[in-house]
Write a structure and sequence with these properties.
By secondary structure, this protein is of the alpha/beta class. The chain has 19 helices and 21 strands. 32% of the residues lie in helices and 17% in strands. A 6-stranded mixed beta sheet has the order 17-19-18-21-16-20. Strand 18 and strand 19 form a beta hairpin. Helix 4 runs antiparallel to helix 7, helix 7 packs across helix 8 and helix 13 packs across helix 15. The longest helix is centred in the N-terminal third of the chain and has 14 residues. The two termini are 45 Å apart. The model has no long low-confidence stretch (mean pLDDT 95).
Length: 529
């Protein structure tokens, strides 16, 4: 997030939520948005293929078709430019590339965009005016924006909209991606990406690489690594022989599980390190028992870049070990001696190599923690980024982005759009929440949301099992008749192994930059059983 969570409740005058079922997937943040709208009068714009909870209280709700985000945002920008609602001073002083972007956006009139997205032209105009005319407007998005073959374009378009109106670098403004898991921000910060060392320092930068080589005492490869999806593909091709999976469950969370299963079976050796025997662990040659958050010390970094202490409540049980100890022992056995005495010692080494964390210490993290960048010991942390329109690269760069259709579109055989997500009661692949008796009793199985008109045409009753199929295969799943989505769109979650929807999603449709799969759009059909 460029800004802070509290700003969503106290400072934002307009909140634009796109591709995020916030009250279910980020309920604390969702409640803060609701409080701002209900008690402080903030305007709310919601864009989502499903009429989510927040849509019920929105000033404008836009039910765009899955995969049409770029067209929708270009349409809003077209209105803002044509009606003179741009922040000309911010554009002139703080950005570059405006003319090329505006030239592309010129054809995306609300009427033109309506044909692509199905959102009424007047709703696009209304949303654009509310966003542009608000004193402080923020955009919140989640994986409904990123999990597309055009995910990078979607995010760049959102940044275009924020810069066009000068909604960057002030309280209550900004671009706020709501991260999908509790410490995914921290994992990325610490070098969990295949293209960076800790602090987003590029693997391909010679000076950066030399710094880490000196610190770690080994030569480091000059090339970028592979993303998770690329790793599975390489395993399937026989180019990767061994794999260590830590706290991840690709046999539930990755697209096209037939492809994943074949890849795992082709490995010579698979190690899974986790707190439960997951679906992926069943394919492992060795399972290493890790520990839960309550059994270890360290830090988590949340979605607003806030680094917070995690403290051990109980000792690890049943012979399990903290992840850092397991990694150290593996490295040592594989020929690279790795010895640390505590997570704090690791943190001290990391901050010495990471400018954005340089001013932090366990002592300073007491209480509410600190938001990076925090470059020195007397720095208070940074509640919002890009103050006064100052960007890391100098000026903010507009991107001229044309709308591209999703890779797999409906046809006669598969006439529907399948989109996927989560619900409030279960988390990710269900590894933890489905072991909670109360949660699993409340929502014990997957449901396929089907529009009432489609259900009536097919003679499908609420609660009966139907067959959901794509070009990758079929699952049987319980029908839930609901009018919150369009007649040609169906939706389900990926929490349930009994009807794992990722047997059906598409592993071939990847974003060319981020390499994220297109979970949110694939062609499907349903059959009455």
């Amino acid at each position: 997030m460029t800004n802070s969570i509290e700003e969503l409740e106290k400072d934002a005058k307009c909140i634009f939520v796109i591709g995020s079922n916030t009250t279910e997937n980020h309920p604390v943040i969702g409640m803060k948005i609701k409080k701002n709208v209900l008690y402080r009068g903030a305007k709310l714009i919601v864009a989502d293929p499903r009429r989510i909870d927040l849509a019920e209280m929105a000033d404008v709700y836009m039910a765009h078709l899955p995969g049409t985000d770029v067209a929708l945002i270009n349409g809003m920008m077209n209105v803002i430019i044509n009606e003179g609602l741009v922040d000309k001073e911010f554009i002139d002083n703080c950005t570059e590339g405006y003319e090329a972007m505006a030239e592309v956006v010129a054809k995306y009139t609300p009427e033109y965009v309506e044909k692509i997205t199905t959102v009424p032209a007047e709703d696009i105009r209304k949303a654009a005016r509310i966003y542009a005319e608000s004193e402080a407007a923020v955009i919140c998005y989640a994986m409904g924006v990123t999990q597309h073959s055009t995910g990078t374009d979607n995010v760049k378009s959102i940044c275009n909209l924020a810069m066009l109106t000068g909604n960057i670098g002030r309280p209550g403004t900004g671009v706020d991606p709501l991260r999908g898991q509790n410490n995914v921000q921290g994992s990325c910060d610490m070098g969990g990406l295949p293209v960076t060392y800790p602090g987003y320092q590029a693997v391909t930068n010679e000076a950066v690489r030399a710094k880490f080589e000196a610190a770690w005492g080994v030569p480091l490869p000059p090339n970028n690594g592979l993303t998770l999806t690329e790793t599975i593909n390489k395993a399937h091709e026989g180019q990767i022989k061994a794999l260590v999976v830590i706290g991840e469950n690709p046999m539930m969370s990755d697209p096209d599980l037939h492809h994943v299963e074949e890849a795992l079976e082709k490995l010579d050796f698979l190690v899974v390190q986790d707190i439960f025997l997951t679906e992926t662990a069943r394919y492992a040659d060795v399972v290493l028992p890790g520990v839960t958050f309550a059994e270890k010390d360290g830090t988590f970094t949340n979605t607003e870049r806030r680094v917070q202490r995690v403290r051990k409540a109980i000792d690890p049980i049943d012979g399990a070990k903290p992840d850092w100890q397991i990694i150290c022992e593996l490295a040592t056995r594989m020929g690279y001696p790795m010895h640390y005495n505590s997570p704090e010692e690791i943190f001290e080494e990391m901050k010495a190599l990471t400018p954005s964390y340089a001013g932090m210490s366990y002592a300073r993290l007491e209480g509410r923690g600190l938001q990076w960048p925090c470059p020195s010991a007397d720095h208070p942390g940074t509640p919002f980024l890009h103050k006064d329109g100052k960007f890391t690269r100098g000026k903010g760069l507009f991107s001229a982005i044309e709308f591209k259709e999703p890779r797999e579109l409906p046809d006669e055989e598969y006439p529907l759009i399948l989109t996927t997500g989560r619900n409030l009661y279960h988390y990710h692949t269900g590894t933890m929440t489905r072991r909670s008796v109360a949660l699993d009793k409340h929502v014990p199985e997957a449901e396929l949301e089907i529009n009432p008109h489609l259900a009536a045409k097919m003679g499908i009753r609420d609660g009966e099992k139907v067959r959901l199929s794509t070009r990758r295969g079929s699952v049987e799943i319980k029908a839930k008749i609901t009018d919150i989505l369009a007649e040609n769109v169906v939706f389900t979650t990926f929490h349930f192994h009994e009807a794992a929807v990722n047997w059906l999603t598409n592993a071939d449709s990847l974003d060319p930059v981020a390499k994220i799969p297109e979970y949110k759009v694939c062609a499907a059909r349903i059959d009455k059983i």
